[in-house]
Design brief:
By secondary structure, the protein is an alpha+beta fold. The protein has a domain at 26-46 and 55-77. Helix content is 33%, strand content 24%. The chain is built from 2 helices and 3 strands. The chain has helices at 6-25, 69-76; strands at 30-31, 36-44, 58-67. A 3-stranded antiparallel beta sheet has the order 1-2-3. Strand 1 (30-31) and strand 2 form a beta hairpin. The longest helix has 20 residues, at 6-25. The chain starts with 5 loop residues before the first helix and ends in a 10-residue tail after the last helix.
């Protein structure tokens, strides 16, 4: 069994932070197996005619994360309790 060093982990995260935004900007959905997927969602100003819609019509962009099967399983086991204020 191999051990991942902190340098290796940092390199993976650095690559993730470089590649994922580039792929999303290109219009791709980034799927990470059972972890989940990332996609871009946009909001726009309404236009009465389709031909009036342009890039300037877009008012907001967001990254949407949809958890995968394994991620949902882990979230399903989370328990919450209220902490008392002292």
């Amino acid at each position: 069994m191999s051990t991942v060093s902190s340098v290796d982990a940092a390199a993976v995260l650095e690559a993730f932070l470089t590649v994922v935004p580039e792929k999303l900007a290109d219009g791709n959905i980034v799927e990470l197996g059972d972890f989940g997927s990332f996609r871009i969602s946009v909001s726009s100003e309404g236009e009465p005619l389709a031909e009036n819609v342009t890039a300037r019509s877009i008012t907001d962009t967001r990254v949407i994360f949809t958890p995968g099967k394994r991620f949902k399983q882990v979230l399903g086991t989370v328990e919450f309790q209220k902490e008392s204020a002292n």
